[in-house]
Records
---
Amino acid sequence: MKKNKWGLIILGLVIFIIVITFPFWYGKGKTSPAPTLSLDTPAIAQLKEKRCVEDTSFMRESHMKFLGTWRDGAVREGKRLHTARDGRVFEVSLSGTCLKCHSNKEQFCDRCHNYLGAKPSCFSCHNIPGEVKK
Amino acid sequence: MKNISISLIAVLILAALPTGLSTLGLSGLITNILPYVAIAVFLIGFVFRILLWAKSPVPFRIPTTCGQGKSLPWIKSNPVESPAGYWGVIARMAQEIFLFRSLFRNTDVAIVDGRPVYGSAKWLWFCGLLFHWSLLIIVLRHLRFFVEPIAPWIGALSALDGFFEIGIPTLYLSDAAILVGLTFLFLRRVVVPQVRYISLFTDYFSLLLIAGVVSTGLLMRHFSPADLNAVKTMAMGWVTFSPVVPQGINPVFYIHLCFVFVLLAWFPASKLMHAGGVFLSPTRNLANDSRMRRHINPWNAPVKVHTYEEYEDEFRDKMKASGLPVEKE
């Protein structure tokens, strides 16, 4: 193996560089815009104050944990009402509260989830109002 | 203790670095400049170290056999542990790289009744394997932030890793496994007196730095989430060479980034280079064929020799005349 030592070294290094730079060549350098979330639903258009249960940055970062506490509270302790930090009261319901406003799951939930490869299992049980199960 | 303390202080300073930089208004340094510096240092340094090692002469085979070498046909040989050919070497290297075969031979010694007693010690091998495979899976899973659209195999790997769907967001098994592995590797250095005695700054620092990466990552996944949308937008900015400065990402994320960049830049200068070095282990990647082939040291000085054949040719007549036996008539 001594004779072709340099061949193997170069081969190894080329493979190493190709593998490490995978993200740089995989997308062929095309820029892909970040997903834009559509808030254009009839329910949101009717709202006077366009405000989710909590403020936007909190919902962006922590909605999954937040929905987790909703689930645990509702299913295990029967807490069906949630009082937000600013005193407004919401029914604890994914289909009834969240999806009432965000009725456009494909233009809202799915856009970020697909972009980030997040596969929440919410909708394997919860139904999406207005969507016929495929 | 001194080495542990210095390593810990170094990691804590690195953790404080992003906050310090952003108060100075230099957060663009971390998000736009350091990623390129880190990956460039990593790649160039890695290649440089490998070429440096590749230049070292290895004129002879180092047959540290762990099995019977190939010799006579009726002696059963072990073609993987003591390979004589190309494919055997590939099998041995694959065992070493994917399963840490050498570490599996690790033994422990204890003094029982005044005599040393040797036994098998597999914990280091097991936790080492756990740590390295978890690290690989975690790095591959992170590719979801670096490619768009996400390649199907990345999603499949994540789904497999989060198979049990424990908690929201799902606990990845590799995250739990890497914590177990890291904890063992660190405690081993702290608890075992012999290992503590030979442990240096670089040993503790590697472990603590990776522990820092893992803990900030887990913190963001399970306790104080970061805005992943902004994170991926930034990461995609790097790979398309159009970096953007993100707004309002959780400070823990910048600590995570800072740790990763330091890890990347420090990698080629440290013992972590065993990642590349393992491929160049002469006792593993050279066939044990010293009995089959003559390996001549290429830089041997030319020695003037006079073989017996030449001697006989020169003196054959005289040898015959004096009655000495000759091999060729």
---
Amino acid sequence: MSELTQLTLAEARDGLKARKFSSAEITRAYIAAIEAARPLNAFILETPEKALEMAAASDARLAKGDGGPLEGVPLGIKDLYCTRDVQTTAASRILTGFVPPYESTVTSHLWRDGAVMLGKLNLDEFAMGSANETSAFGPVISPWRVAGSDVKLVPGGSSGGSAAAVAAHLCAAATATDTGGSIRQPAAFTGTVGIKPTYGRCSRWGIVAFASSLDQAGPIARTIEDAALMLQSMAGHDPMDTTCADLPVPDYRAAAGRGVKGLKIGIPEEYRVDGMSGEILALWNRTADYLKDAGAEVVPVSLPHTRYALPAYYIVAPAECSSNLARYDGVRYGLRVPGKDIIDMYEKTRAAGFGREVRRRILIGTYVLSAGYYDAYYERARKVRTLIKRDFEDVYASGVHAVLTPATPTAAFPVGESARQTDPVEMYLNDVFTVTVNMAGLPGLSVPGGFDSRGLPLGMQLIGRPFDEETLFAAGQVIENAVGRVRYPEKWW
Amino acid sequence: MPVDTATVKRIARLARLAVDDKDVPHLQNELNSILAFVEQLNEVNVDNVEPMTSVTPMEMKKRQDGVTDGGYADLVTRNAPESEDHFFVVPKVVE
């Protein structure tokens, strides 16, 4: 394994700027690591030629003393981001052959700042899943294993390719997206840092839509500092997305060094759910102590509607999904299966193109929006959503700056386990700690908190006030300093 | 409110998803398990609660109603499964 792939994004960036090595060198090191890691199935498409072209352009800029904040740094891109003239699949058969003629705003920000694209990362189909097992391109395998076992574990989902690639040192950092936990849960499963910023912090333009009122872009990286540098480039106003906030982007890297002295951190009682492992409870208490030791005040808080977030989410998200995915009709792009008339063509195309989980969510969404059921389900869920948001508003109004919770109820589980579950609700329970944040539109950060007795990483989640990602980076840095840098698994694949 | 097999077929039709008859009972079970799970929302008192329309309060930006983009029909149609002279080709819809 090359030394260059072991660097953090910040170290790589500084080394490139100081011309200790070239972008071509670090890019080639990552390309070799990716080729050697095909058994993990983290990439749907590798783009080595494009990467080397971009690296050469970066090297030319660096030679002149120019270059952006991410100049020459090789990244992985979740295959939900449209990339100009590079196949984009959303891990679905229905987008077979789709080559976008445009670039998503977030990726265009990264290229503007000098980053290099290594390829497109695997994910759950249309970002619907929590184990990266609904992908039409097969599951992603986590680089993590229990010591002495060769049982393959999931990297979490939906940004499973992003999380696995970052943890396996196949890219310096990766883009991801989060609708109900799809950045924070895989980050927790792989010992990486993931942040879902406030709804509206990043543009959604050019990212394949799942549930538009919940979707947000964010990074997965190996350190808090790296995640801060990534979000710095990804965020910012975009007139192409009317929900994208017209606010200045603060200096996140500087914020990470602020410390937590004088901050009030809330611990919500409602997150102590039945069946939560003692290990996670102990870790949660220990993490609160780290923050206390660094000068924060830790207080109990109440978020009384927490338990209703998941059922409300499983109405709102499928409703928006059924509406967004209506565009896949076999006419303008992607797969077409011929039929005896146009309706038959639509029905056959969509049945063949969408996988089981996506079809299930479209059906639920269609049902809850259909005449006679709209008020009972969708309207009620939107009201519950108001109450969930109000819970957080009350806590923040009482002077609390951020809320600390576990990121997931368990560590990573074996590949194939979710397929054996006959009840889809079992899989949905993975998102119990993360969906509240999407429902309330708040920023949420997952940071490694420690390991379970089998050596698998566990993540802690920090939830912030709207547009206050800075406090999350500051508190996340304190936790990272206390826990120590994660030692990622040695290559076994 | 559990769904019956006729409802599953009706919803699939509305969603434009072809469903094999043999898959209907299986889908019916899955849908009913999700609907049973969301049933707990009925415990919540939502009297006088406004349904959420926008998660971050913001004023919708407006722009001039003018053409700002376009003029590249070849790019628009290049991903189509079937196209002809910059038109999307579909099965006959009018007899």
